[in-house]
Structure formats: structure tokens, C-alpha cells
Amino acid sequence: QVQLVESGGGLVQAGGSLRLSCAASGRTAYTMGWFRQAPGKDREFVASISRSSDITTYADSVKGRFTISRDNAKGTVYLQMNSLKPEDTAVYYCAGNTRYYYGVRIKENEYDCWGQGTQVTVSS
After folding, report:
1. How far apart are CA 35 and CA 37, in angstroms?
2. Which of 23, 49, 28, 24 minimizes the C-alpha distance to 102?
3. Checking DSSP bridges between strand 2-7 and strand 56-58, what pairing results, if any?
């Protein structure tokens, strides 16, 4: 099993930046992703990155503002969030997939391990 621990969340003003980190331990996870859940809403896909970092994909709502990256040597995945908006306020979850070696994944049920989440609050 893979254990995932997120960090880096917090309170930021609109237009600001945050970088989330997700430290993985245990078994190797291949595709990694970030999801988020705002109050009263379903959890939604944010970004995904392939095992070798050659493929990334983003939700339209964050494209051009967020960047996902990973350092396999450190077992860490990052989400750099720039030009933050109040609508980005949510709990952000790191997710890992140990079944599919190649590519990226955008559906929750394609991930089999999850972190506990980190709160991101963007004030207007």
C-alpha cells in the first residue's frame, strides 16, 4: 500500500500562490493526481501526472494557473498554484494509482490510495 501525506495548504489572498506537496511512502505509485472538494460540492479532478512526468493533464478551471510536478527520487508530488481565486478554496487531496503504469488518470475510481487532504482558503 502507498501512504500519502499532503502539506502546504493555508490561507492566501486572491492573486497569490501556494505550493502543495504530497509525500509518498511504501509501495511505488505510478500515476499521481490532485483532486479538490469545496464545501457542499463533489470532489473534482484538478491535475494528473504520469510516472515519468512526460504527460500532464489539468482541469480547464486551473489550466494555465496550476502546475503539477513530481520528484520520484524524493517520492514527492507537487502542485504549484498561481493566480489563486476564491473559487479555488477547497480541501485538496493527493491521489496515487498503483495499477496503471503509463499515462494519466482523471477519474477518482482510477486511484487506489489517497491522502488526508489539506485545506486551501483563498480570500477575496
Report:
1. 7
2. 49
3. unpaired
Q: In what order do the strands lie in the sheet with 66-71?
A: 2-7, 18-26, 76-81, 66-71
Residues 6+ apart with CB under 8 A from 96: 2, 4, 24, 29, 30, 31, 32, 33, 111, 112, 113, 114
- pLDDT tens string, the chain, 124 residues long: the values are 889 999 999 999 999 999 999 999 888 789 999 999 999 999 999 999 999 999 999 999 999 999 999 999 999 999 999 999 999 999 999 999 998 889 999 999 999 999 999 999 999 9
Residue of 113, 108, 37 whose CA lies nearest to 77:
113
